[in-house]
Amino acid sequence: MSSSTATAEVEADHGHPETNSGISNNKLAMWLFLASDCLLFGALISTFLLYRTNISDNTPFSSAVDDVFDIPFTSLSSFVLLMSSLTMVLALSAVNRDDQRSGRIWLLTTAFLGMIFIGGQVYEFTVFATEFDLGYSTNTWTSAFYTLTGFHGVHVSVGILLLLGTVFGTRKSGLGKEKGETVELVGLYWHFVDIVWVIIFTIVYLIPIG
Amino acid sequence: MAVTEPHELAAEDEHAHDHPSDSKYVQIALLLGFLTAVEIVMFVIEDSLGATVVKLGLLILMAVKFWIVGAYFMHLKFDSKILTGLFVFGLILAIIVYFVMLSAFEFSFWNDGYVDPGLPLSES
């Protein structure tokens, strides 16, 4: 058997060219990116934690931080994002079964749930700015809060673009089993965004100050 | 030292594709939703449980949710251990970043009166 035939067989079996580790280079690169992104969010969460207990008395947060947050609303947003992780794995599962129609529907549902989450974040920021007069530079607490949650929002937005790009970019070529790895990579990014929110929701919104 | 040969890693990857069924994924998502509900209940009844218990409980629930999403939705439980190693390495580095920042603020900046994070930016 020629080496090119063997390589083609391995590629057909795994969905990617043969590598020494047995892991696709694209997948390895995505995991490396996610590992490095941990550092970005690690720094942002660290900054927030350092500032959250040092709130001046002259800001509304000092007396009633829990009143500023709308926990039921944010809980609903968190639930929406968690459920988008479910629709993402269902999309991958459908694509791996070569069920293109279901794959597209689940990917679009995931993007839609992501948009709902982003809409919620925009609403929350607007309420903070208009009702509580909390701008980005009101104090270092608000700066840390907006930077952390804003960066997460940007990640979700990029994820939505990736999902829509996957759906509409494969209209001609099809979203068959051979695209399984592409969907898996988008899914990894989406789930990462989800687990970062799991941390942010607990640390920023739920854990009591002091 | 034992060295893992490339073909062994490839073999490991070959057996690493037994992902859960769709119904299993739904069950996992429901479990995640339930854990989120427990978190919110803990937040609501904070006064009766006590701040320390609530903090500890919320951190444990956060870690469990993190692990569930990573293990099942991101397939770390079923994929090559190399990927788990990469991700854990990133997480450990992130935790180190936190402690380095904490040390820097605790032992340097605040003690020198360099920055008061509580002041509005215009006054600091």
Walk me through the structure:
With 210 residues, chain A is mostly helical. Chain A has one domain (25-206): Four Helix Bundle (Hemerythrin (Met), subunit A), CATH 1.20.120. Chain A has helices spanning 3-14, 25-52, 60-68, 71-96, 100-131, 140-169, 180-206. In chain A, helix 6 packs antiparallel against helix 7. The model of chain A has no long low-confidence stretch (mean pLDDT 85). Chain B has helices at 6-14, 22-44, 46-49, 51-73, 81-109. The longest helix of chain B is centred in the last third of the chain and has 29 residues, at 81-109. Classes of the chains: A mainly alpha (210), B mainly alpha (124). At the A-B interface, helix 2, helix 4, helix 6 and helix 7 of A face helix 1, helix 2, helix 4 and helix 5 of B.
Short note summarizing the structure:
Chain A is mostly helical and 210 residues long. Chain A has 7 helices and no strands.
Q: End-to-end distance of chain A, in Å?
A: 69 Å
* Rg of chain A (CA only): 21 Å
- Helix-strand sequence of chain B: HHHHH
Secondary-structure-derived class of chain A: mainly alpha
Secondary structure layout plus pairing:
The complex is a heterodimer of chains A (210) and B (124).
Chain A: H1 3-14, H2 25-52, H3 60-68, H4 71-96, H5 100-131, H6 140-169, H7 180-206
Helix pairs in contact in A: 2-6, 2-7, 4-5, 4-7, 5-6, 6-7
Chain B: H1 6-14, H2 22-44, H3 46-49, H4 51-73, H5 81-109
Helix pairs in contact in B: 2-4
Task: Based on the model shown, name its key terms.
heterodimer; A: 210 residues; mainly alpha; Four Helix Bundle (Hemerythrin (Met), subunit A); globular; B: 124 residues; 2 domains; 5 helices; 71% helix; flat
